[in-house]
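W.,

You were right to be curious about this one. When I first looked at the sequence I had no strong expectations either way, so I just let the prediction run and decided to look at it fresh. Below is the sequence, 67 residues in total, followed by the output.
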Amino acid sequence: MLFSVFIACVLLSGFVMGKLAFEAGLGVKRWAIVGFMLGPMGYPLFNVHKRFAIKRAVGQFTSTITL
């Protein structure tokens, strides 16, 4: 029972990470695999990578407004 909950959590996490990567314009396969391997623990890593990608695309000394 506990093992199947773990597997379901990992599979769902991989799917969600792939979807979020697609929406952010990042590598879908890479982040889906990270989601499958790390589960929900990969989400903070994804957020940091997404923030760095935005900073790299926009510039270092600029600010963005997100709604």
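Here's what jumped out at me. The chain has one domain: 2-58. And, maybe more interesting for your project: The chain has a mean pLDDT of 90.

Coffee later to discuss?

I.
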